[in-house]
Write a structure and sequence with these properties.
This protein is mainly alpha-helical. Helix content is about 50%, strand content about 5%. The chain contains seven helices and three strands. It has a three-stranded mixed beta sheet. Helix 2 crosses helix 3, helix 3 crosses helix 5 and helix 4 packs across helix 5. The longest helix is centred in the middle third of the chain and has 28 residues. The radius of gyration is 17 Å and the shape is globular.
């Protein structure tokens, strides 16, 4: 409701959640952070090679002995996956609104796309706050808070606008705090307006 609508390419009124060690393997062994899941826009382009022709989220599996990558207990997966799904759901909605509905030439700039997805986590946390469920709210809020803290430790060394790669955790923290500020200043439908457009990055925010 805050961002827009997801697609339903396969007409099943469902989003498939595939738990697979292929996600675990994306994180090199010995890493201090990990990739917990992703949405693959190619799945919504049925004419593309490798497309699953439907809405799919991919998530990591428990790996208590570190066979595939860094150790992941069942408890850690249960703790981390809910926020990951909220995050990736925003990416799925963004892809639909930009690429499928409005025929944008490309996806949103990485820094703004990731900021919007982190705001999805925050919105779910706020919903749980409204229910008086602080424990569930924390499941959705802790990741973005950790990234924000990493930015605030050395803000002089971090760029808001990520120019290369997938963006570091401090860079993503910067994007989250910036969009929190914009949302607070603008009120209303600013998150939806940033999503339902073909504009990109700085140009999108300025508009």
């Amino acid at each position: 409701g805050a961002f827009g609508s997801p697609s339903d390419l396969d007409g099943n009124q469902r989003i498939i959640i595939l738990f697979t060690p292929a996600v675990n393997r994306l994180t090199p062994k010995g890493s201090s952070s990990f990739i917990g899941g992703f949405f693959y826009g190619n799945d919504l382009l049925p004419d593309q090679t490798g497309s699953n022709k439907g809405e799919v989220f991919y998530a990591l599996v428990p790996d208590p002995t570190g066979i595939y990558s860094v150790v992941q207990t069942k408890s850690s997966v249960l703790t981390n996956v809910p926020a990951i799904l909220a995050h990736e759901f925003m990416h799925m909605i963004n892809f639909n609104e930009r690429v499928l509905v409005r025929q944008a030439a490309g996806q949103e700039a990485l820094w703004l796309s990731e900021a919007l997805a982190q705001m999805a986590e925050e919105l779910v946390a706020r919903a749980y706050d409204g229910l008086g469920d602080a424990t569930s709210a924390e499941l959705f809020r802790s990741g973005a808070r950790t990234r924000a803290k990493k930015y605030l430790q050395r803000p002089d060394t971090v760029s808001l606008v990520v120019s290369a790669g997938q963006g570091s955790l401090p860079e993503r923290g910067a994007g989250f705090l910036f969009l929190m500020y914009v949302d607070d200043q603008e009120k209303g439908d600013i998150l939806g307006r940033l999503t339902r457009t073909t504009r990109t990055g700085v140009t999108n925010v300025e508009a």
